[in-house]
Design a protein that fits this description.
Largest sheet: 5 strands, antiparallel
Oligomer: single chain
Number of helices: 16
Helix content: 40-55%
CATH architecture of one domain: Alpha/alpha barrel
Bound molecules: zinc ion
Length: about 475
């Protein structure tokens, strides 16, 4: 197994509690309590289609109802496309998640029922995967086979490959060959064909999936493509970070989304010559947001940030980072997060390291980052003014240069509203526009995309 050492497994088995086991069982209930169901054709499309057109809320997903989908607001029933395809996409997501999490559950409990489920999922997809027809048509995205976009395909393959890594030694030679040839190699080849020539979080996720398959199969071609080719993981790190380590898309949510892709790869390939852990980039990415925290310990909601994404709850990243880098601020952040949540994630079990005594507190120095385009003035505890002047970041940008967020007494008195689901009319119709922000807006028109330049910034003991 590539992702965990025997010692990590022994330690995780000692640390695991009944609550953690029950949480893993509950979140995979559907798979545990039903026969494994795999789509026989490439019929799955996109989760964002699974919304009520009248109420912009997610429809109820019911395993026993692939053709009738109910709105939770008024009980209206929707059928046919695009809802049915989205229903199958949801199922693929549940299957992929279970492939990994039931593998972990088996490691922790040694209960072979979970091993059998993982085997069934992998054999099921191996049976059909080569036959799925390529399909797509999702905005800003390449096509998929099991799903309709390359990004979704990559996300599923991260879990297929990690699940396979856990159970590989317990498969027969025939099973192993069937899964590697029909699922993992076919998937890697498809992802390599469809990774695009751009600096973007999607390309990080796609490269990470190819790299994880490469690490698990010890395939240097995949690893080299994933890490060292143009637009691969190393290239993204070298070109997509601003000087202080912020991801160029200008949204803290996508900053962490990209970092999740990088770290998914590192959790499997760390320790090999393909790992990028000892380069300076990840530490910059991990540390930069900690200087941007607002008085209530949330991240600035600049650009695309759906409600809730401003909360710094990324234990999957900081458990691994604290374990590997031993940077005290990462441990202190975890200490802060665990004042509100149990320390019960999979990463907390396998990368556990004792936390520092004190939690992280909000920064009190001013932050002025002219190239990354963020200034946060912090005159006294509980008060802060955040000024957005980030360079144009592409599809996730909002038209609000010099947008202000003002906090007093630890609360946002002039908030940045972030946005809502991207499929909802208010996303483009309201939240992204200049008039929805605390900024200059002329005749209700949007500011054009730009790369702002700081003309002057003066700060001394009395004023900023
Ligand atoms: Zn509805
Ligand atoms: Zn905004």
């Amino acid at each position: 197994m590539k992702q965990f050492t025997p010692l990590q497994i022994v330690n995780a088995r000692q640390r695991v509690t009944r609550d953690i086991i029950n949480t893993l069982i509950d979140s995979n209930n559907d798979l545990i309590n039903h026969p494994v169901l795999i789509p026989e054709t490439g019929c799955a499309t996109w989760n964002h289609y699974f919304f009520c057109p009248d109420h912009s809320v997610r429809l109820k997903w019911d395993r026993h109802s692939p053709h009738k989908h109910v709105c939770p607001v008024d009980g209206a029933v929707f059928s046919g496309e695009p809802y049915d395809g989205a229903w199958w996409r949801w199922l693929n997501g549940l299957n992929a998640k279970a492939c990994y999490e039931l593998g972990v559950l088996w490691l922790l409990t040694e209960d072979d029922r979970y091993l059998d489920k993982v085997r069934e999922i992998l054999l099921g997809y191996a049976r059909y995967y080569p036959l799925y027809e390529e399909h797509g048509g999702i905005p800003y995205n390449g096509p998929g086979k099991a799903n309709a976009q390359t990004l979704c395909e990559a996300n599923c393959f991260v879990d297929f490959a990690r699940g396979f890594d856990i159970v590989q030694a317990h498969l027969t030679t025939e099973e192993e060959h069937f899964i590697t040839s029909r699922l993992l190699h076919t998937g890697a080849a498809f992802l390599m064909d469809h990774r695009c020539h751009q600096i973007h979080n999607h390309e990080v996720k796609i490269s990470a999936a190819i790299g994880i398959i490469g690490a698990v199969l010890e395939n240097e071609t995949y690893l080299d493509f994933a890490v060292n080719s143009k637009y691969g993981l190393a290239y993204q790190l070298e070109h997509a970070l601003m000087p202080d380590g912020l991801w160029f898309e200008g949204s803290l949510h996508y900053h962490y989304y990209a970092l999740q892709g990088f770290f998914a790869f590192e959790k499997v390939a760390g320790g090999t010559k393909y790992s990028l852990l000892d380069k300076p980039f990840y530490r910059r990415m991990l540390s930069a947001p900690l200087n941007m925290l607002m008085p209530d310990m949330t991240l600035p909601k600049i650009n695309d940030c759906v409600n809730g994404q401003e909360r710094l709850t990324h234990t999957d990243l900081y458990e691994f980072a604290w374990w590997y880098y031993q940077d005290k601020s990462y441990g202190q952040l975890l200490n802060y997060i665990y004042q509100q949540h149990e320390r019960d994630s999979i990463d907390a079990l396998f990368y556990a390291k004792e936390l520092p005594d004190h939690p992280l507190s909000p920064p009190c120095q001013n932050l002025h980052s002219p190239q990354s385009g963020l200034t946060i003035i912090r005159p006294k505890p509980g008060r802060a003014v955040c000024v957005k002047h980030t360079p144009y970041g592409g599809e996730h940008d909002h038209y609000n240069y010099l947008g202000l967020t003002v906090f007093d007494k630890n609360r946002a008195i002039f908030p940045d509203l972030g946005t809502t689901g991207y499929g909802a009319p208010l996303h483009y119709g309201y939240y992204k526009n200049s008039f929805a922000h605390n900024t200059l807006c002329i005749n209700g028109k949007n500011q054009p995309p730009a790369c702002p330049r700081v003309v002057s910034y003066i700060s001394d003991n009395n004023k900023t």
